[in-house]
Amino acid sequence: MLHAGPAEVAALSAAGAAVGAAVAVPLGPWVEFRRKRPVLIAMDLARCAALLTIPVAFVLGALTYVQLLLVSVVVAAGDITFRAASGAYLKALVPGEDLLVANARFEATAWTTTIIGPPLGGAAVGLLGPVATVAADAVSHLLSALGIRATGGPEPQPEHRRARGLRAGDLLDGWRYLLADASLRPLFFNTVLFNGLLMASQPLLAVLMLGRLGFAPWQYGLAFAAPSIGGLLGARLARPLAARFGQREILVAAGTLRAIWPIGLAFVGPGTGGLLLVIGVEFGLILCCGVFNPVHATYRLERTANDRVTRTLSAWAVTTKASTALLTAVWGVLGGLLGPRTAIGLLGALLLATPLLLPHRTPARPSEPEPAPSRT
After folding, report:
1. What are the backbone angles phi and psi of residue 274, rounded to the nearest 5°?
2. Per-residue pLDDT reduced to its tens digit, 132-175
3. What is the distance, to the nearest Å, from the Cα of residue 371 to the centroid of all Cα atoms in its chain?
4. CB contact set of 349 (below 8 Å; sequence gap of 6+)
5. 282 by DSSP, 3-state: which?
6. Do residues 244 and 297 make contact, with C-beta atoms less than 8 angstroms apart?
7. pLDDT tens across 183-197, in order?
8. How far is residue 190's CA from residue 353's CA, in Å, rounded to a whole number?
9. Residue 66: CB atoms within 10 Å
10. How far apart are CA 172 and CA 166, in angstroms?
């Protein structure tokens, strides 16, 4: 509606995520020592308010590209902070033995929305227009805030922050903790690299399929929506597989298998055969991710001390956002120089090496911090 070109649209996506990640850096340590439910509600309300400025500005004839960029920054920062706080809140609410069940249900819900959301969103944009659809997105955050407000169960009081307040060195606490932990460190590098490389392939694949291979938009959508059923299946399998073989073993097995599939996308051809190849590759990839993700989320929460969860998850999310933006930009340049098919193949080859970073052995579980001795 603003007649933005491809470069501006790409910049809106990449810059919003990158700047949003930078804005979220100080929020992790700040949130750590506060109750998580009010933070979750505040992040929902902040994202709702930011998104609502778009239809308001449109009605007033004042909508600009700069406003869209600012909104994307607020939403990205809110997303990172919400995810970090929600992980700590979940660990406080759910008994340790039920964490995998809860994370598997979240995973199943995520893949359900992946199946249903894009078709509904496309239909809404076609019928109601993008402005009304953005308004509906804003309302969804308001409904989320109301749902979290109604959540039952007590939330334990976090440790009080020392009176000195937040210092510059505190911003790196999450990364220090991750890099010092022998079990979280390899998993951190594995997931950041895998997610960044995988997401960097998406624009290249869109150019290849929609441009050079001549697939229709509905075929492109079908190629990625239908395989999401594998995510539902994987989420259902995660708990029984972990119970039978162990969490670390499933992390290594599923993490290795998910890295094998993406290189197949470099061999996509035109027509029905090419479409079926994409669906098959994506189904195998998503099935493995559906098993890996809830086990990974549970393993990470279990091996993170209670007073470090928010800072750790925030550092994890910030690094993932920033690395994804960087790798997407780099592979966009490589795609222009080498062609999208060659660039996708190079990504697939690099992904084959990511299982080397998985935690192939289980170090001793870190102990929770002991309470400070009382003074008399």
Report:
1. -65, -40
2. 889 999 999 999 999 999 887 677 776 655 444 556 556 788 89
3. 34
4. 263
5. helix
6. no
7. 899 999 999 999 999
8. 9
9. 8
10. 11
pLDDT digits (tens, 9 = 90+) for 204-257: 888 888 888 988 877 888 888 889 899 999 999 999 999 999 999 999 999 999
Determine the Cα–Cα distance for residues 171 and 27; give it in Å rounded to an integer: 9
| 173, 84 contact by CB (below 8 A) | no
Name the residue with tokens 């086990």. 295
Tokens of 227: 């395989």
Tokens 């990974």 belong to 296
**CA 13 centroid distance within chain:** 14
Are 154 and 92 a contacting pair, CB within 8 Å?
A: no
Q: Which tokens go with 191?
A: 């997931």
Degrees, nearest 5: CA angle 138-218-320: 50
The DSSP secondary structure of 39-94, one letter per residue, reads HHHHHHHHHHHHHHHHHHHHHTT---HHHHHHHHHHHHHHHHHHHHHHHHHHHHHS
Longest dimension (CA), the chain: 79
Neighbours of 295 (CB within 10 A): 27
Domain 6-150+173-357 in this protein, CATH class = mainly alpha
Domain ranges of the chain: 6-150+173-357
In angstroms, the CA 190 to CA 356 distance is 8
Q: What is the pTM of this model?
A: 0.79
Is the distance from CB of 321 to CB of 18 less than 8 angstroms? yes
Residue recorded with tokens 């052995």: 361
Residue 147 vs residues 40, 41, 56, 105: alpha-carbon distances, Å? 11, 9, 25, 17
